[in-house]
């Protein structure tokens, strides 16, 4: 689960991490009031969306008067911000964060994440803050350093000192860095964060460290332990189809293609998407109904797929182990009868109760194209989509 910058900074503040003072705002009047509360004389008006690249897209503006605060708030609220992470459709700005201006001497990069390869929490640090870290990794990888924390030993001050030296910090800044890293590590562990990114981490002209931006992702599977975190969720930032899928415990990710996919098992879903691309089309989604899906969940999955206007064909690919093919067939038939079928539908069933599943589809009277295996299914759905076009 993602949260907004102002929410992330509030969470980090609970752990003693230094962040600039700021106030969220939802209207131009609230933005002006926030600026008056902060005092100025310089403020930063920031659009709050779940995407990076806001500054380059005009979503972060430094202003020096209350009139300019109001003008920028009026411009941003309700506008659509298009960044390299939003896609061409962009995201609507519904919230702002008005923050104290900071006198910046240096910009650094710092992040903390779960390194799956080592099963450890890792800190990634670079002197090249304020830039896309992917660009730094591609052009000057030697400027990125990684520091792992041994889970048996936990955090130790020497880790913070090593990071400080890697960032070129000196004197009191080293002590500040040790305290900062300790706070970040504690926050990541306590709140089950999967990613924490500070870009930039700045050194002010007064020599202090300050987290000028903050991006936080939480592990969805741990949210039951953190009701306070779950309450920070902004559903307006989520794809409506993905939000509905969560309600039925479906693993769904919207994509930009034309062929909707309903598959059981993440590995088989990935293979299905790959073979669709192999035969010349693009998948419209990743959808794993899971190993123990009910007819109700299958029906919901089918409805989510058909609600996508870009879908020109549907491929149901089920290999029944725990999942029963007759349950899938029942769900597909129920869904088609409820929402109709206006695009080609190819179904490949194999495994538990496959004969019963095929019989249900045959006797349904639906215009279903049967397939013998995955290769056959992919060829048929791609051919059907191209023919319909």
TrEMBL record:
<feature type="binding site">
    <location>
        <position position="264"/>
    </location>
    <ligand>
        <name>substrate</name>
    </ligand>
</feature>
<feature type="binding site">
    <location>
        <begin position="321"/>
        <end position="323"/>
    </location>
    <ligand>
        <name>substrate</name>
    </ligand>
</feature>
<dbReference type="GO" id="GO:0050074">
    <property type="term" value="F:malate-CoA ligase activity"/>
</dbReference>
<keyword id="KW-0067">ATP-binding</keyword>
<dbReference type="InterPro" id="IPR013815">
    <property type="entry name" value="ATP_grasp_subdomain_1"/>
</dbReference>
<dbReference type="InterPro" id="IPR013650">
    <property type="entry name" value="ATP-grasp_succ-CoA_synth-type"/>
</dbReference>
<dbReference type="InterPro" id="IPR005811">
    <property type="entry name" value="SUCC_ACL_C"/>
</dbReference>
<feature type="binding site">
    <location>
        <position position="99"/>
    </location>
    <ligand>
        <name>ATP</name>
    </ligand>
</feature>
<dbReference type="InterPro" id="IPR016102">
    <property type="entry name" value="Succinyl-CoA_synth-like"/>
</dbReference>
<dbReference type="Pfam" id="PF00549">
    <property type="entry name" value="Ligase_CoA"/>
</dbReference>
<comment type="subunit">
    <text>Heterotetramer of two alpha and two beta subunits.</text>
</comment>
<keyword id="KW-0460">Magnesium</keyword>
<protein>
    <recommendedName>
        <fullName>Succinate--CoA ligase [ADP-forming] subunit beta</fullName>
        <ecNumber>6.2.1.5</ecNumber>
    </recommendedName>
</protein>
<comment type="pathway">
    <text>One-carbon metabolism; formaldehyde assimilation via serine pathway.</text>
</comment>
<dbReference type="GO" id="GO:0005524">
    <property type="term" value="F:ATP binding"/>
</dbReference>
<comment type="pathway">
    <text>Carbohydrate metabolism; tricarboxylic acid cycle; succinate from succinyl-CoA (ligase route): step 1/1.</text>
</comment>
<feature type="domain" description="ATP-grasp">
    <location>
        <begin position="9"/>
        <end position="227"/>
    </location>
</feature>
<dbReference type="GO" id="GO:0004775">
    <property type="term" value="F:succinate-CoA ligase (ADP-forming) activity"/>
</dbReference>
<feature type="binding site">
    <location>
        <position position="213"/>
    </location>
    <ligand>
        <name>Mg(2+)</name>
    </ligand>
</feature>
<dbReference type="InterPro" id="IPR017866">
    <property type="entry name" value="Succ-CoA_synthase_bsu_CS"/>
</dbReference>
<keyword id="KW-0816">Tricarboxylic acid cycle</keyword>
<dbReference type="GO" id="GO:0042709">
    <property type="term" value="C:succinate-CoA ligase complex"/>
</dbReference>
<comment type="function">
    <text>Succinyl-CoA synthetase functions in the citric acid cycle (TCA), coupling the hydrolysis of succinyl-CoA to the synthesis of either ATP or GTP and thus represents the only step of substrate-level phosphorylation in the TCA. The beta subunit provides nucleotide specificity of the enzyme and binds the substrate succinate, while the binding sites for coenzyme A and phosphate are found in the alpha subunit.</text>
</comment>
<feature type="binding site">
    <location>
        <position position="46"/>
    </location>
    <ligand>
        <name>ATP</name>
    </ligand>
</feature>
<feature type="binding site">
    <location>
        <begin position="53"/>
        <end position="55"/>
    </location>
    <ligand>
        <name>ATP</name>
    </ligand>
</feature>
<dbReference type="GO" id="GO:0000287">
    <property type="term" value="F:magnesium ion binding"/>
</dbReference>
<keyword id="KW-0479">Metal-binding</keyword>
<feature type="binding site">
    <location>
        <position position="102"/>
    </location>
    <ligand>
        <name>ATP</name>
    </ligand>
</feature>
<dbReference type="Pfam" id="PF08442">
    <property type="entry name" value="ATP-grasp_2"/>
</dbReference>
<dbReference type="GO" id="GO:0006099">
    <property type="term" value="P:tricarboxylic acid cycle"/>
</dbReference>
<dbReference type="InterPro" id="IPR011761">
    <property type="entry name" value="ATP-grasp"/>
</dbReference>
<feature type="binding site">
    <location>
        <position position="199"/>
    </location>
    <ligand>
        <name>Mg(2+)</name>
    </ligand>
</feature>
<comment type="similarity">
    <text>Belongs to the succinate/malate CoA ligase beta subunit family.</text>
</comment>
<feature type="binding site">
    <location>
        <position position="107"/>
    </location>
    <ligand>
        <name>ATP</name>
    </ligand>
</feature>
<dbReference type="InterPro" id="IPR005809">
    <property type="entry name" value="Succ_CoA_ligase-like_bsu"/>
</dbReference>
<keyword id="KW-0547">Nucleotide-binding</keyword>
<dbReference type="GO" id="GO:0005829">
    <property type="term" value="C:cytosol"/>
</dbReference>
<dbReference type="GO" id="GO:0006104">
    <property type="term" value="P:succinyl-CoA metabolic process"/>
</dbReference>
<keyword id="KW-0436">Ligase</keyword>
């Amino acid at each position: 689960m993602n949260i907004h910058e102002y929410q992330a900074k509030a969470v980090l503040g609970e752990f003693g991490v230094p962040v600039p003072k700021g106030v969220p705002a939802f209207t131009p009047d609230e933005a002006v009031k926030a600026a008056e509360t902060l005092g100025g004389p310089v403020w930063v008006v920031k659009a709050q969306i779940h995407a990076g690249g806001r500054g380059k897209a005009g979503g972060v503006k430094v202003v020096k008067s209350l009139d300019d605060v109001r003008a920028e708030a009026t411009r941003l609220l309700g506008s659509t911000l298009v960044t390299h992470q939003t896609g061409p459709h962009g995201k609507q700005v519904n919230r702002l964060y008005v923050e104290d201006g900071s006198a910046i001497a240096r910009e650094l990069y710092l992040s903390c994440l779960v390194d799956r390869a080592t099963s450890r929490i890792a800190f990634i640090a670079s002197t090249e803050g304020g830039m896309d870290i992917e660009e730094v990794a591609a052009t000057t990888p030697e400027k990125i350093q990684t520091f792992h924390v041994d889970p048996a030993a936990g955090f130790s001050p020497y880790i913070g000192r090593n990071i400080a030296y890697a960032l070129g910090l000196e004197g009191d800044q080293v002590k500040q860095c040790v305290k900062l890293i300790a706070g970040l590590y504690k926050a990541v562990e306590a709140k089950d964060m999967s990613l924490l990114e500070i870009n930039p981490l700045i050194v002010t002209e007064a020599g202090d460290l300050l987290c000028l931006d903050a991006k936080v992702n939480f592990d969805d599977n741990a949210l039951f332990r953190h009701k306070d975190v779950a309450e920070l969720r902004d559903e307006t930032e989520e794809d409506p189809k993905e939000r509905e899928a969560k309600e039925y415990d479906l693993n769904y990710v919207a994509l930009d293609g034309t062929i909707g996919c309903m598959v059981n098992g993440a590995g088989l879903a990935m293979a299905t998407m790959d073979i669709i691309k192999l035969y010349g089309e693009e998948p419209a989604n990743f959808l794993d109904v899971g190993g123990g899906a009910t007819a109700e969940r299958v029906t919901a999955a089918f409805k989510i797929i058909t609600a996508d206007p870009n879908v020109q064909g549907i491929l149901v690919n089920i290999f029944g182990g725990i999942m029963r093919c007759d349950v899938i067939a029942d769900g597909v038939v129920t869904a088609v009868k409820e929402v109709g079928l206006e695009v080609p539908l190819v179904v490949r069933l194999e495994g538990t109760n496959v004969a019963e599943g095929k019989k249900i589809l045959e006797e349904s009277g639906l215009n279903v194209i049967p397939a013998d295996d995955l290769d056959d299914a992919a060829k048929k759905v791609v051919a059907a989509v191209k023919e319909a076009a």
